[in-house]
Design goal:
With 381 residues, the chain is α/β, with parallel strands linked by helices. The chain has a single domain, classed as Aspartate Aminotransferase, domain 2, CATH 3.40.640. It has 13 helices and 11 strands. Strands 1-9-8-5-4-2-3 form a 7-stranded mixed beta sheet, with helices on both faces. A two-stranded antiparallel ribbon has the order 6-7. Strand 6 and strand 7 form a beta hairpin. Helix 2 runs parallel beside helix 11, helix 3 packs parallel to helix 4 and helix 9 crosses helix 10.
Length: 381
């Protein structure tokens, strides 16, 4: 069975988990900043912890945070748990990103931040985003923070400008489903050293070390992942996921779309073993992105154009965390490919305002709803 995603891991990461990896977090922060053209980077246990910590560190509270309706639910959860209010915006079906015309109209005197998610690796229009924020700041006479959500888009660029270098901060998540991984983990990157220092100081005051037991558990988790995605074993892994509570229970401890919560260890600092794996992944980054871009072009040229299928665009600067196709009969397509030994994914199966915790929001998000119901993802890893 070909899995719907597969982390790019080999013997170099495998051997790393058996080493001490002293001060690996500091090294990972420096190398991450260098790789993604940032002045500094600050590591966290999860991407959602990083987003939450940033909002808390800069003192945003009871404000509106503009964000897309179609993205991972943890983005909205982090906004809510920081004491703020998500303001949802519908998307464009062309690239699945937030509609910037709608976003600009939504800015008001209560807006404190905008989260620009570069969905599936497609870069948003950075010129438009920056101009929109500048105009709103002049109109309302206050700072509006521009947050780049790069969790799907490591190194994507808009007209030659890397997306994470725009705005005030960029967020990256580093779990096993992302373009590169540190087992678990998250990272913030900055272009302003003073702001980076402020967030790092806040992290060091409010987060604690994970300890030796967690370090052992992370190593065991890595070993399980390392072998679980092997093509000769993955069929059994999929069976465990679908027919037993074992893997489902683990997943629910860290992520529930319809429950506003964080993992139990969200206030732990990144571990050195995680950072050490991340350092190995950074070295592979150029090859990983090149492979994804070539795979997306291959699909674009070779996937059948069946009736009702809408293939995604090939865009300069995109990194293709997923190759997303809209189909009118999603379950039938998934079943058909499963019989061929290929697992297809349903990455975002909801429009966030339709989740029970957010149904008090205005529910007029037709394009986000369509994407959530009709999209499937072909593996590009």
């Amino acid at each position: 069975m070909i899995p719907r995603f597969k982390p790019s891991l080999d013997w170099s990461e495998f051997l790393t988990i058996f080493k001490r990896n002293k001060r690996a977090v500091e090294k990972f922060e420096k190398e991450f900043a260098k790789t993604f053209n940032a002045v500094d980077a600050v590591a966290f246990p999860y991407g959602r912890s990083a987003q939450w910590a940033f909002l808390k560190a800069i003192g945003i509270e009871n404000g509106e945070v503009i964000m897309p309706a179609y993205t991972c639910s943890v983005v909205a959860h982090a906004v809510t748990l920081s004491g703020n209010i998500p303001r949802f915006i519908d998307i464009d079906l062309y690239d699945y990103n937030m509609n910037l015309d709608h976003a600009e109209l939504a800015i008001n005197e209560n807006t404190r931040a905008i989260i620009a998610t570069h969905t599936f690796g497609y870069p948003q229009n950075l010129d438009r985003l920056e101009a929109m924020v500048e105009k709103a700041e002049k109109r309302y006479g206050k700072k509006i923070w521009l947050i780049q959500d790069c969790c799907h888009a490591f190194g994507a660029d808009w007209k030659g400008k890397m997306i994470g270098t725009s705005g005030d901060v960029a967020i990256y998540a580093l779990n096993i489903s992302k373009l590169i991984t540190s087992i678990f983990g998250g990272m913030l990157t900055f272009q302003d050293q003073k702001l980076a220092n402020k967030v790092r100081d806040w992290r060091d005051t409010h987060f604690k070390s994970g300890g030796w037991l967690k370090s052992i558990k992370r190593r065991l988790y890595f070993l399980a992942v390392y072998f679980a995605f092997h093509k000769k074993i993955y069929g059994f892994t999929l069976w465990l996921q679908q027919n037993t509570p074992l893997l489902n229970k683990l997943t629910k401890a860290y992520h529930l779309d319809n429950k506003i919560h964080f993992p139990p260890d969200y206030l732990d600092k990144m571990l050195n073993v995680e950072a050490a794996v991340g350092l190995k992944q950074l070295k592979k980054y150029p090859k990983i992105i090149q492979f994804r871009r070539e795979k997306a072009k291959y699909y674009n040229q070779n996937l059948p154009r069946k009736e009702g299928w809408c293939l995604p665009p090939i865009i300069q600067g995109a990194t293709y965390s997923h190759y997303t196709v809209r189909v009118p009969n999603r379950n039938e397509v998934i079943y058909d490919y499963k019989n061929k030994g290929i697992e297809l994914g349903k990455v975002i199966q909801y429009s966030i305002p339709d989740l029970i915790e957010y149904t008090s929001s205005n529910n007029n998000f037709p394009l986000a709803n369509e994407a959530s119901k009709n999209s499937i993802n072909f593996t590009v890893s």
